[in-house]
Prior knowledge:
Elements: H1 2-5, H2 8-27, H3 62-96, H4 101-114, H5 118-129, H6 133-159, H7 163-170, H8 175-211, H9 223-229, H10 242-272
Helix pairs in contact: 2-3, 2-10, 3-4, 3-6, 3-8, 4-6, 5-6, 6-8, 7-8, 8-9, 8-10, 9-10
Amino acid sequence: MSRLRNNKLFVLGIILVSMVVGLCAVSFFYLPHDPNVMNTKERLLSPSVEYLLGTDQFGRDILSRIMVSSRYALFIGLVSVSIGAAIGLFIGAIAATSKGIIQGLLMRMIDGLMAFPGILLAMMLVAVLGEGLWNAVLAIGIFMIPVFARLSYSLVLDQKDELYIKAAQSYGTSRTRIIFKHLLPTIMPRIITQFSASIGNAILIESSLSFLGLGVQPPDASWGLMLSESRQYTLTYPFLSVPPGIILVITVLGFNLIGDAVNDSMVKRRAAA
Length: 273
């Protein structure tokens, strides 16, 4: 932990993520304006004291919509990655501790999911499931499954022949208990690293889906949706697209920095050992 506190990238990542989390927390108690109320008399206003980031083409306060969008971004990121991690870790661990047809079947299924590019797989799933918040969460969660399955598969393979696992097997401990009591706690630091980095990736995919009209639906706000709605005004009214773009970059960068810093700390710890 001391290494992480001294890691400037980790500290920067924590600061960036804390800013977004703070923005999300404040949005539940205070919003400058109603994010969904349209006022055509005040459309496309430049930043001012009343509208700190200006208004969009429908007269809606940009700051309020960015604040509300942070709820969806963090919710989708955390929930979708949690779904993918839970299912992927279980599949990978079962495959690594199995033999023959079960191992081959599970890993070929994972290979099949990994054969599709990330955003393309998410788009296909949303096209099948339908548009909307929960379908986007489910689609991104399914996309995350092979990431964690491959990771847990390789990590469990490295650990399953260790003496402490052999000892547990000699006492007749069930495979499920070995996985959850012995193997998963051992590989958890690597899982946490991947989890943190995957949240940023999930938020980026959600923004891409919303940009294409497949994620969060109007009149609700999403950073990707705000970027999509501001496309035709990018050159004449740049304040429409710059704020949601900046907050999206800050969020993804923050989670990636945290994940990279934790991974570097683990590598140095193993090298020192």
